[in-house]
Amino acid sequence: MTIGINAFILVAGLLFAIGFLGVILRRNTLVIFMSLELMLNAVNLALVAFSRYNGTMDGNLLVFFIITVAAAEVAVGLAIIVALYRRRNTVMVDSLNGLSR
Amino acid sequence: MLDSLFYVFSAITLLAALVMVLNPNAVGAAMAMIVSFVATAALFVLLEAYFLAIIQILVYAGAVMVLFLFIIMLLDVDKSEQAFPRDKMTLIGSFVGFALLAVLVVSAFNGAHLPETELLSVIENPTGSTAGIPFTTSAKSFGYSLFSKYMLPFQLVGFLLLAAMLGVIVISKKQESTEA
Question: Does the distance separating the beta carbons of A1 and B119 come in below 8 Å?
């Protein structure tokens, strides 16, 4: 394969920027959370690319841990969102402004 | 042929991510996210991280996104609500996001590049525990690394999963109103 590492880093950076746009632009809390997962996924891609092009295994191990931590974070975050929905009956972040009063 | 596969799968990843961010429907966004994750797993296969590709599909696309879809269906968000805000701070934030994208693309094609390292030869089996575990394509080296060099993060992640499970159970219990 003649693809250099710069191509993989570009794809990872674009994925990260798209996830960042999703966090900023969307009002639905669940879609914001999914964009956060997209940013984590971009970091995973960059780590695996660096690990392959440097000939070491440590980047792959770190991706293993990042995937595990992301799964735990999604579980807890979704439980918080469900509990919040039970209290406020909405998931749109414009309506969840209880701290601004 | 692997080069064209890289272009195809990276295009699928980026387009699915764009669809996820721009889709007003939450279920459609989750479906596009699944497509993006599977295409990322294909990119992992191109990078010869086969174990991680399977873990990506099993955990991310198979468990995390299914959990998202459960919660999206459970909360039953009204689709007719406005999906994108229109106030000033959000427009400034989105402009910063687009500027980040533009800087990234421009610097990737015009700016200073990292030195291009050629692909090193792949070792088939791990031999010893030194600093910087040599790259292999076998899953045995994952197990070897997790139990020798990365033992402490491994145990801590076990504790983290236990804490997350307990936290989810505690948070999602229905509050029983104890009116005296």
Answer: yes
